[in-house]
Amino acid sequence: MKFDLKNIRAVYVLVPLSILAVLWTIMAFTGQWPNEGNGYNSYALQSLSWLHGRLDLGGNYEWLELAIYGGKYYVSFPPFPSFVLLPFAAVCGSNTPDHWIVLVTTIIGAIYATKLTETVTRTKEHTAFWVYFLYLASGLMFVSLNGFVWFIAQSMCFTLSVMSLYYATKGRGGISLTLWACAVGCRPMVAIYLPLLAYILWQKLKREDSQIKLLPTILQKFTWYIGPLVLALTYMILNYKRFGSPIEFGHNYLPEFTRTPTGQFHVSYLMENLKNLFRLPQVGAEGEALTFFTMNGMAFWLITPLFITVAMAWIYYVIKGKNKNYVTLIMIPILVLAHILFICCHRTLGGWHFGNRYLLDALPYLYYGLLLWMPREGWFAKINQPLFFLGFSLNLVGTVATYNYWIS
Predict the structure, then answer these.
(1) Which end of the chain has the least Cβ crowding within 10 Å, N or C?
(2) What's the half-sphere exposure (Cβ side, CA atoms, 13 Å) at 161?
């Protein structure tokens, strides 16, 4: 079959171009151009060290978050982005095109979000609106702008999660679970969503053959597990070789966590972080602007109104939905809530950024729930337009203001 541009629907061109237009506008006001160098290039340095036969970085880079173990300095983040950067490091050394990679990753994710939207809703109406809601009315706008070590991992995780969900809806278990394992290698907490992917795959198989049995099917589909198992084994070997434990990625050996008795994760952090997720911008004196936070998050529903929209869709589905799928109706909120509570047991809710960066990892799975539960009629998209513009405007201005240090 010949490739024909006429077969490409307009939405698959307009959505990426629209997102690029917004990101270009932010770059124009902030100078965050993709051809700029990356001072926070931990993953590139790690890739280069691996190519030189060394697991540590060979020295300290004081401005980077490095784990100190056995007197050596290691990248403290999960390793998958360094796998991606290996061929680039082989050619470019430590000057890998991280910003361009994030930009391309974001566009790939938007294309797959479009495919996922149309696959789940089984309609082509309002597709672009919902993808814009996901990408442009959330803190994803902030992290999509450059390849800083924290942001490149989150951008990759987000796109890999969206892709994994899409292939799960298509019943392609091998690639879905492998992509999920790649996402875990960027942001380990998304491991919690494996039951959802497994259930989506099982439902797809049941629709194709209602007589299949669970255990025989699990055994029959053994090829699905090869990719995830190879990646898991790779992560564990790397962890063990570097830190003496197959489940230690290195963050526990950051000085900021080794110097505190409660470490990286502790239940004592929970209440303060939960409060931060609900805190509103501070009101100043009469005539002054509101003060927005750039550390440890703020009102999640204000910065990412998609949470409100998902809640509305869930309530609608409970009351008026037909042929209810009670498993996903219960499973998705429980998994997301567990994810958020675990995040809130972390010592911080993320360093310098605008929005709630840590919550971004849950958005693809919440978005899948939205696609399942929302009414297909156009009125639902219409009533959510004000929420979209609220999220879009706040994140557009907030991203520009934060990168320009107008707020701090």
Answers:
(1) N
(2) 28
User: How confident is the model over 55-64, as a mean pLDDT?
Assistant: 94
Supply the pTM of this predicted model. 0.95
Q: Give the pLDDT confidence score for residue 190 in this predicted structure.
A: 97
The pLDDT value recorded for residue 321 is 84
List helix spans (H) across 93-225.
98-121, 127-136, 140-143, 149-169, 173-184, 194-208, 214-220
pLDDT of the residue at 303: 95
Which token pair is 127?
């597709």
**3-class SS string, 326-337:** HHHHHHHHHHHH
d(CA 12, CA 112): 9
Let me know: does 146 contact 101? Beta carbons within 8 Å: no
| Residues 191-238: tens digit of each pLDDT | 999 999 999 999 999 999 888 998 999 999 999 999 999 999 999 999
Write out the H or E segment, with its range, that includes residue 75: strand 72-75
Residue 378 neighbours by CB under 8 Å, 6+ apart: 125, 126
Look at strands 72-75 and 66-69 and give their pairing. Answer: antiparallel
Q: What is the DSSP letter of 360?
A: G
> Among 3-7, 144-148, 321-325, 341-345, which is the least confidently predicted range?
3-7
Q: Degrees (nearest 5) of the Cα angle 85, 367, 348?
A: 60
The length of the chain is 408
Beta-bridged to residue 346, according to DSSP, are 265
Close Cβ partners of 334 (under 8 Å, ≥ 6 residues apart): none
Q: Which two tokens stand for residue 378?
A: 């156009």
Say which residue the tokens 């290996």 belong to.
Answer: 86
Please tell me the distance from the alpha carbon of residue 86 to that of residue 77, in angstroms, as a whole number: 16
**Cα–Cα distance for residue pair 394/356, rounded to 1 Å:** 13
Residue 64 three-state SS: coil
Q: Could you give the 3-state DSSP secondary structure of residue 185? A: coil
Structure tokens at 131: 């993808």
Residue 3's pLDDT band (boundaries 50, 70, 90)? very low
Q: Is the pLDDT of residue 277 over 60?
A: yes
Check: CB of residue 362 under 8 Å from CB of residue 105: no
